[in-house]
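Supplementary Methods, section 5.1.

A reviewer requested that the exact input to the structure prediction be made available. We therefore reproduce it here, unchanged from the version used in the analyses.
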Amino acid sequence: MGGISLASYGLRLTTDAARRCLDWLRSPTEDSLATLLVHPGYQAVLRHSRTLSFAPITEQDFWRASRGEPSNLYGLRAVLDNAYQIECLVAHVELYRPSLLRHIANALLNLLDPVYWQNTGLHCIVGYDASIGIGGQVAINLNWPLYRENRDEIPRRLLHAAVHVAYERIHGPMYVDWLGQPGGLRRYLCTLVQKEGLALYAATPDSPAAGPLTDADQQTLAAPARLRQRLQEFAAIIATLERPGGDKEIDKILPIFSDQRLAFVVGAYLFRTIAAQEGPAGVRRAAMLPALEFIQKYRSLVQQPLPSTRG
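The structure derived from this sequence is encoded token-by-token as follows.
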């Protein structure tokens, strides 16, 4: 790791957006919100919302959230109550910034060609999802309870979202609008499995020495009974989608996919199994396949006996 030149890959890890958000919430003004929203981290939030949400976030959602009212901008609940802990996380990231960047760069180098992830901005923000990666930018919400419980999850989630950036550069963006197109549900779900699976695979420690798995998806990967159930649910959904009219089951399929976290768990299991059978080169080849082709090629792996549960 010591030989990695971060400057040559252009990775940047910032914390100023989190500080700006706390300042704005303590004294909300139009100017301070405008300054906040032009930050690349919050630009990523707005783009992510426009692309992948049924209810895109607007500036008014920020104001409603600041007043404690219901809004589409989740993740801002009790921010000021958690302000001290958030500021401690900001200080932690700033103190360990060089080592965090080396860890993330090393993991990405082992996963994909740098052309797909270099010049990525990694931004600590407050609000929205646990972590997102879109348009060359990563945003990680320091108000997420998981980070306050286990700081080791911060580099894992930064890495997870950086893989999203790389995936988008390889395959192009995905859109919630696909769900309204013929065959769109299958395309959407297969893309989720490949994208989220690759990200979770990259971010899951390969040894117990790396610390406890506090992320629920990582815990499922390490629990054979739960993992087998998720794999069976996935196989049943793919079989449904292959039948005539399978897309009409969208109201039944989407909640199962979401509630059981199938994209994350099944996708990571597939990449972990590919790594065991084909090595790192196999993982890279699988990541480059179009999503539908990826599922078609590797779907049979969900029927195989489970290998070791962590690694």
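The chain has two domains: 6-171, 177-303. These observations are discussed further in the main text.
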